[in-house]
Every structure is written in structure tokens, then in C-alpha cells.
Design goal:
CATH superfamily: RutC-like
Oligomer: single chain
Largest sheet: 5 strands, mixed
Shape: globular
Number of helices: 3
Number of strands: 5
Number of domains: 1
Radius of gyration: 15 Å
Structural class: alpha+beta
CATH class: Alpha Beta
Order of helices and strands: HEEHEHEE
Helix content: 25-40%
CATH topology: 60s Ribosomal Protein L30, Chain: A
CATH architecture: 2-Layer Sandwich
Length: about 160
């Protein structure tokens, strides 16, 4: 995949047939995005669709397949991009994706967290090209807010 020209992230999303949901902000005093020192970090983003409903609620390995978890992870990234655009004014201020933290509501014996996280990782590369490659942490947890199967935090570097 080639690098996207400056000013093209919204165009890339449109070419993929995607619209950003939300933005969905956390309750006060938490913030959806903090910008500091040339980077922006999102609060945890749930897999909410355009109607604000959680996509594929439940526990991966019990109620939710790894494939549906990966799809939910893509929705989390869309929500992260939505709050970033709201805060930054444009997604084109993002120079590159630095780190992705993925929390997966998992059955106790599950080791499927990387498979769920792959949905988000691949999607970031699909949208940002090489600038979407990142470091990643995938963690299994007992439960997540609103019964979501996955929650994602995103850290990005900003252009000067």
C-alpha cells in the first residue's frame, strides 16, 4: 500500500465506504483525547456503530467469535478516529500511529486477544498505509463497559 497524500484520510475512509460514528465522549472529568508534546492519546473507545449501539457485545470465546471481535475492534478504531478528528479538526494532522492498546473481554482460558487486535491493526494500516504500523498491547480482561467485547486506546504522533 502506498502512503496517502496529505489531506486524504477522510477521502480514504470515504473510498472504503466508511463514516465515522460519534464522537462519543466520556463523562467529566475524563477527556476523549489529550494532546501533549506532539502526540495525541485517546481514552478507551468502545465498538459503537453509527447509532451509538455496541457492536458484538459479550465475551470473546463465549458469546463472540474472534472474527466478530476483530470486526468490533475496527469499530473501536473508527470511534478513536472520530474523537481525534473532533479534537484535532482534521485527521490529516496525524503523522503516524504510535501505539494501540486493545482490551478484550475474554473467556478465562482464551488466548485469542491477538486475533481480535489484528482487526484494529490491519485497519489502521489500511487507512494510514505505512504510517499506520504501530506497537501494540493486547490484554484479556473479565469485563468491559457497556458489555463490549473490546475497548481500544490509540496514541498517534502529530505533524508540526
Amino acid at each position: 500500500m502506498t502512503e496517502q497524500p496529505l489531506g486524504s484520510i477522510d477521502n480514504r475512509l470515504a473510498a472504503l465506504g466508511l463514516s465515522l460514528p460519534g464522537p462519543f465522549h466520556p463523562p467529566e472529568p475524563a477527556r476523549a483525547v489529550i494532546v501533549h508534546g506532539g502526540a495525541a492519546r485517546t481514552s478507551g473507545q468502545l465498538p459503537r456503530n453509527l447509532d451509538g449501539k455496541v457492536v458484538h457485545p459479550g465475551v470473546v470465546g463465549v458469546d463472540v467469535s474472534v472474527e466478530h471481535g476483530a470486526e468490533a475492534a475496527r469499530w473501536c478504531v473508527l470511534n478513536a478516529l472520530s474523537v481525534l478528528r473532533d479534537e484535532l479538526g482534521s485527521l490529516d494532522r496525524i503523522e503516524r500511529v504510535l501505539h494501540l492498546t486493545v482490551y478484550v473481554a475474554s473467556a478465562s482460558e482464551s488466548t485469542a486477544q491477538p486475533g481480535v487486535a489484528d482487526g484494529a491493526s490491519r485497519f489502521l494500516v489500511e487507512v494510514f498505509g505505512e504510517a499506520g504500523r504501530h506497537t501494540r498491547t493486547a490484554v484479556g480482561v473479565v469485563a468491559l463497559p457497556r458489555g463490549a467485547c473490546v475497548e481500544i486506546e490509540l496514541v498517534v504522533a502529530l505533524r508540526d
